[in-house]
């Protein structure tokens, strides 16, 4: 029977024959350039962001100052004199607001910043003067501030267009501002002051050691676009946990070296995760072509965000673990 299919028996035998070669092709004289091969494909080279030694040391110093301020403020806060501590924390809240608003650029940035300043004042006042030292009033302030910030972002059309994508950014800014009032609440509770001191000391040691190690030995790199090294993160986590265990051996019950190590480890993990998330966020914005933010705000964002999340972690550990 005739086979109209081009894949006839002879062609099949030719293809199945081991070592069979394709028939030679006649070069085309009309070709205008060299023949391309897969080996000549060009791939975009990944730019390795250099690690700036002076900048890493400056961020380490800033993280250390934050840790010392939180710990000493909690230690020296008297029962009837917590207003100085609240004033110090209000300054930290303003720094957090400046850094995160300039870095994340939420819709209606001016209105959002104004709402957050009012939220910070209300949260600090409630933390100092409320009849009972509880977390729920701060949760209500966070919810009210978030709703007020969203309302301020719906007046202009360009802000409304970004609202569905940026509400998480707004919530992070408002919640971070309120979180710095939690240390005041902790100083009014039974085990809160000791827990806050351990968490601040452990997180501070971890961030300082990690950033200082990046200045000397930023290897192996976490990512080419992120100027951080794995050695610093691991060494900071180890020494931060050790600092928590050491403080646990000096503090009174219910603290023990083992409990101090657990509290310190959780604070270290929280601080490192937030700090690294900020670094990856900055790298992502640069790769997307977004305009870089003010350099001071950009580099303060990591430590400020880390201690903002350490505060609610310390509150949870004080109530559910200790």
TrEMBL record:
Segments traversing the membrane: 55-77, 83-101, 108-129, 135-155, 167-186, 192-210, 230-255, 261-281, 302-321
Keyword Cytoplasm in record: no
Biased composition (Acidic residues): 36-45
Entry protein name: CDP-diglyceride synthetase
Superkingdom: Bacteria
Signal peptide: none
Keywords from the named record: Membrane, Transmembrane, Transmembrane helix
Region (Disordered): 1-45
